Amino acid sequence: MRNFRAVLIGTIALLCSAAAQMAQADDFPTRPIRIVVAFPAGGPTDFVGRLVADKMTGLLGQRVYIDNKPGANGTLGGGDVAKSDPDGYSLFLTTAGAVTVSPHIMPNMPYDSLRDFAPIALVTKVTEVLVVTPKLGIKTVKELVALAKEKPGAIAFASTGIGSPPHLAQELLDASAGVQFLHVPYRGAAPALTDLLAGQVQVLAADVPVLIAQIQAGNLVPIGAAANTRDAVLPDVPTLAEQGYPNTNASNWYGLLAPAKTPAAVIAKINDAVNAALNDPPTHDKLVQAGATPVGGTPESFGKFMKAEYDKWGRVVAERGIKDTQ
User: Fold this and answer.
1) Residue 326 — pLDDT band, cuts 50, 70, 90?
2) The domain defined by 128-225 carries CATH number 3.40.50.620
């Protein structure tokens, strides 16, 4: 009898909890929703975040706004959200590096990527493209590799930080081509791009949205895509694999996360809004034109994707001996 009463009480408690969560989801949202972007305003993650947030505002009936919290390759902003209340009002628009690479190279992470977040949706995928200035006089990755073999460790290859997708593109090319570039990490795309244009570094890998304007203006020469397929915005730029360097896919992506224990019904409501925003023709077209491929999908599919990326980059970090020295 006591066991029956315990089971009955437990069942009633679960039903009450489920009912409370459903009621919370029915009312959600009742105030503005904050999306943390862990990079400065004006960058590609910020651009994608603001575009999607603006559309979500109309869909959810409450303001969805961007809160820029740059630092530590995205982990500063991620730590802020991981410690926030799990109610759906604080979200994290993460990049691949912040949740699938940094955990393997940073000794004091402010969160556990797989434990402290609930996946909502994979928002976009972004190709990493290698670019040089016209002054360098090369147009292919093979020519770049030849330069690197002539001067081992002397060709400066800029990235947006240790463990960032641009850095991983360089590491994968090093391994595939059997060369050694001089890795020069910057704290973001803007200073790296500035120094490339000034001739302080010889090559840069970065997200297409960062580079597309300079490429179209003729200030940069795209020599290869560190991806499995060519980018839709740059269809004439072959992948590194097409040029003879396999296993060089370092594609970046942006995904939306909530703090762990956020009610599933709230997650589902936000997921619906994200997918609707990405399927909105004007929003979809603006993302594609900027070099970001809209994805969407379920929280479950994003969770599986993130875990696969986490495992993949863990292996690469171990094989290449990548460490956070900043």
Assistant:
1) low
2) no
